Structures are given as C-alpha cells and as structure tokens.
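Retro notes, structure queue

What went well: the backlog is down to a handful. What didn't: a couple of records were mislabeled last round, so from now on we paste the full input next to the output in the thread. Example, using 3-oxoacyl-ACP reductase FabG from Gordonia hankookensis:
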Amino acid sequence: MGKLTGRTAVITGGAQGLGFAIARRYVAEGARVVLGDLDLAATEAAAEELGGRDVAVAVRCDVTVGNEVDALLAAARDTFGGLDIVVNNAGITRDATMRTMTDDQFDQVIGVHLKGTWNGLRKAAAIMRENKSGAIVNISSISGKVGMVGQTNYSAAKAGIVGMTKAAAKEMAHHGVRVNAIQPGLIRSAMTEAMPERIWQEKLAGVPMGRAGEPGEIAGVALFLASDDSSYMTGTVLEVTGGRFM
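Corresponding output:
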C-alpha cells in the first residue's frame, strides 16, 4: 500500500518539469492522476509514460479560464470517481526589468500563477468541502519571499500565492480541507538550465548546500503535503531551497 493508494490527484502544468515529477511520485505511491497542461500532445505523452489510462489521463487546460479548470476537475471524477488532491503548479516566466517589462508580460504571469492558482484552489475546495476531506498543494517560489531582479511580475505572483494559501487554509480548515504551499529554490530544470552560466553560478553560490535541487526533491515534499503524514498541517509554506535565503 502506497501513501496515496486509492486517491485521485489533479496536477496542473503536469506534462513536464516539477508537475511531471510530482505526478510520477504520486503514481508510484498508488494515486491515479489527471494531468492538465496547454500542450495536449505533450500531456498525453506524459500520461502514457506514467502508465496509461489506468493510472493517468491528460486534459488540455488553460488555468486562467475557469471553465477549463472545471473540465479538468470533472475529468478526475468522471475517470477515477473522485477528487482527493490538487496541485496548482502551472506557471510561466516573462522576465524583464520594470523599465522594459510590458503590460502584457506582467498580466500573463499574474494571470497564470495567481488567477490560475485561485481557479484551481477555489474550484477544488468547492468539491472537497462536500466530501469533508482533501489536500491542496500550491507551488509558490522563493522569489515570492525575497524578490528577484527582473521578476517583479513573478515575485508578486508567487508572494500572492502564499497569502492566498493562508487565507484559503483558514476558510477551509473546518471543512476538512488542507491547503499548503511549497517554495522551491534553485531546482534543476529545462528552464533554469537555460540560464547563462554566469547567472547559474551566481545563484548556486548562494546555496549553503552547494548544489541545485532536483525535481524529485520537490515531489517528495508534495507527496508529504498530499498524504496523511501531514494531516495536522494547513496554511504552511515549506521552503525547499538547500538553505538559500534562510
């Protein structure tokens, strides 16, 4: 018996990166997963890699569109019979200094991270409160704690996710629904490895553990927050940073 045996999880941004790593860990612990992402072909390929329709299904979903999030959550109930866990992970970056950042770059990042998380959070909570149980995991970032040059949009959105998590946790605690967040630090991924080497080394130098994190290390924390191991935790924000900015 895995820690998530018999449970169904929805993961946004699940076709790649942290979302896919979390999905893989959940399936390994017995969960069935529904992956939501913009690229349906990539999402279907990810679901197939996880084991196919018996354990994973793919849905095209733009998290900024409420009706599409409704359809994503409905797929979990229609395919696997329930909804126990939601991971609000979908995200983008549009980095630029304040002087050069456009309104569109700001709005896109706020929309995907902040409204997208709000859509997933409130719509999942409405379902879970009827069942008197559920776990919601929101993916923030250490950028939401300290701020990063060139990321006024991203840092604002990720800080907003922290406040949203705490407010929602207070609203939903008496309904049996737990809401927690993770703030990853420098995690090895396609996005971070695309950084110029100089920038990568500067960031790495600020990590006391002396290395970047791996996606699986975020997945392990996401498993903890989704499982009964964290049954008395809600409204918490767990930093997974190797000690960076502590």
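Agreed that this is the format going forward. Reviewer comment attached to the example: The chain has one domain: 8-240.
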